[in-house]
Description:
Layout: E1 17-21, H1 26-37, E2 41-46, H2 49-61, E3 65-70, H3 76-90, E4 95-98, H4 115-143, E5 146-151, H5 164-184, E6 189-196, H6 202-206, H7 214-221, H8 230-241, E7 252-255
Parallel strand pairs: 1-2, 1-4, 2-3, 4-5, 5-6, 6-7
Helix pairs in contact: 1-8, 3-4, 4-5
The structure holds NADP nicotinamide-adenine-dinucleotide phosphate.
Amino acid sequence: MTERSVTLEKKLFTGKVALVTGATSGIGRATALAFAREGAVVVLAGRREHLGREVQEEIEKGGGHALYVRTDVRKLEDIENLFQTIVRRYGRLDFAFNNAGVSLPHIPTVTKTTLEEWDLVMETNLRGIWLCMKQEIPIMLEQGGGVIVNTSSILGFTGEYGLSHYCATKHGILGLTKTAALEYCSKNIRINAVCPGPILTEMLEGAVPYVPTMMEMMKNGTAVKRIGMPEEVAGAVIWLCTDEAAFMIGQEVVVDGGYTV
Ligand SMILES: NC(=O)c1ccc[n+]([C@@H]2O[C@H](COP(=O)([O-])OP(=O)(O)OC[C@H]3O[C@@H](n4cnc5c(N)ncnc54)[C@H](OP(=O)(O)O)[C@@H]3O)[C@@H](O)[C@H]2O)c1
């Protein structure tokens, strides 16, 4: 699938503000471009400043509007700065895609996982989303509604050798998503999760040196015998943010080429 330009006629989100964490690469980057294509102002969060600025420029070149805010989701002060910036600049937040995530560059079993490794993955993937939601929900309550999409994984349903740290966070994200969805759906805030299968990004490619057969295994595991593209996850996120998805509450939307089927 080739990337589309950010200039298309049909715009779903004109006048709306969207936040994407982990917007510097992969699924987050593709989703940021998709939000921009639909007319939203996009706030881009991530640590790698040069990449964040590149995405911002790409959106602006296409006639969209974006703002990169350097953010490490493990750091409370960065998160506070991110949301203060959003409120100060735009005064609202319609959509939040909490997507920043990491895995480890190797596959330690439970007993071989160090405390530092466990904390890194937990603090980024699970605590990071919780900290963002603690800021997003009050803004959405104040303005009368909004939509939140959290990135889990198909590893939010199963275990995987050497990935206890990652699987624990992705299972946790689903619990957090469902509970928050119940707590805030009566206030017009819809909260769901996307669960990607194997998607061609830095994260998947990063695993290849440790598991050389990774790409082949993942490809063969899908029903369609291919790895997915970030834009294919972005499409699901965009749909979840539309009014067409008004009856979607606390769901896990699996985008995996039939991997789990
Ligand atoms: N690719 C797959 O097969 C797959 C499958 C299921 C789920 N997922 C999930 O999809 C999400 C996106 O991953 P991806 O596949 O697109 O991989 P990716 O290209 O490696 O993207 C990960 C993103 O997370 C950001 N990030 C990591 N640590 C961060 C931190 N402490 N603070 C802020 N941002 C941080 C990275 O930005 P910086 O490095 O610039 O901070 C990057 O933008 C992750 O949650 C991942 O678990 C991926």
